[in-house]
Amino acid sequence: MFKEITIIGLGFMGASLAGALKSLKADIVVNGLDVEQKNIDFCLKNNFVDRAVLLNQGINNIHSAYNPKQSDIAVLCIPPKIILKFLSVHKNFLSKFQLITDIGSIKKEIVSTAKKTGLNNFIGSHPMCGSDKTGAENADINMFLGKICIVIKEAGANGTYNVPAKNGDIAGDASGADKFYNLNTVNTDNTGINSADGSFNNKTCADIYNAEGGGSFFLQNLFEKTACFWKTLGMEIVCADAGFHDYMVGYSSHLPHVVSFCLSKTVLDAADANQSLNSLKYIASGFKDTTRIAASSENIWTDIFLLNRDNLISSLDNYIDNLYKFKVFLENNDEDALNTLIAKISKQRKTLS
Questions:
Q1: Burial zone of 63 (CB within 10 Å; 0-12 exposed, 13-18 middle, 19+ buried)
Q2: Which end of the chain lies in a sparser environment, N or C, as judged by fewer CB atoms within 10 Å?
Q3: Do residues 229 and 262 share a domain?
Q4: Which ranges of the chain would DSSP assign to H, the alpha helix?
Q5: CB of 162 within 8 A of CB of 249?
Q6: What's the structural domain count of the chain?
Q7: Which segments of 166-297 does DSSP mark as H helices, in order?
């Protein structure tokens, strides 16, 4: 299957990916590229990578023993803002790979930049997993198993998605992508995303390689190869166009981070103002669980928020409307309305289980 893989960026996500790949098949050759020696040292010491290149002096520092053309896939495991710069500045280097994908949590601008730079070997991805921790030393090699990975496939001309009405009920019906279960394509909505080619249906990743010819690919396109890569890690593959991806994660990922930051500040400001009364003793595990992601990197999340700001502002508008609804019911001492709203939200949330 995949014989050689290059991971660009050996921080938390890159090291986790490298370790996960080596745990699946020890003879996979994993190349690691990073700007920090400590990340490289950790990955080499733990056998996450077979060879590594320090990029602190730029991409030209890569030694002659490493040939990008030999990698079946290269994965950009760096923050979205850096991905955008890397695609533009190092397009000549990246064009040597058979296939490039990434892990960025915004997709429209990344996919657009790859297209503008002429990188036709690029397919966007977003594995929906992560941590508030950073650095290779915090790597989690089991992080990908059972999680969803969104792989970007362009929508057809009639692609649409539903926007929840302002001041309306919480979260309208906004499904959004073809799904692959065992790489069988199931259409789930009207986004206009074309199903995979028929020759790809009814196949698992193990079927998508010729036993003859050294395991060469007979995949119809790079999208399918990218889907197979993440499927190999035990992920569920969902495909969506870049615009729908950014809209939906604005609600499901970026908004929760803003909420977590604000909730943490609100509560801890109150605690700080009452330190003399031993106020921290009043903070229970529920608050700590709810605000875990508020410990995330400010640099990464500032960039993500700004890169997806239109979708995030829209989701914040809807969230503020729902907060205001609670506030009004409390001000009016409206027990029935409050009870009904909580019951409706609770029922809706239970559908995730």
A1: exposed
A2: C
A3: no
A4: 12-24, 37-45, 80-89, 91-94, 108-116, 222-232, 242-249, 255-272, 285-290, 298-307, 309-331, 335-350
A5: no
A6: 2
A7: 222-232, 242-249, 255-272, 285-290
Provide the token pair at 57: 């002096």
List the chain pLDDT tens, one digit each, 353 residues: 689 999 999 999 999 999 999 999 999 999 999 999 999 999 999 999 999 988 876 676 666 667 899 999 999 999 999 999 999 999 999 999 999 999 999 999 999 999 999 999 999 999 999 888 889 999 999 999 999 999 998 754 344 555 565 543 333 333 333 333 333 333 333 232 333 333 333 455 555 444 333 444 434 589 989 999 999 999 999 999 999 999 999 999 999 999 999 999 999 998 888 877 788 888 888 888 889 989 988 888 999 999 999 999 999 999 999 999 999 999 999 999 999 999 999 999 999 87
Residue with token string 């023993």: 65
Q: Which single residue is written with the structure tokens 């031993």?
A: 278
77 and 113 within one domain: yes
Rg (the chain; Cα; Å): 22
Give residue 108's domain range. Answer: 4-240
Q: Which of 240, 266, 291 lies at the terminal end of a domain, its last residue?
A: 240
Output the DSSP codes for 289-331: HHTGGGGS-HHHHHHHHHHTHHHHHHHHHHHHHHHHHHHHHHH
Neighbours of 332 (CB within 10 A): 10
Question: Model's pTM, two decimal places?
Answer: 0.81
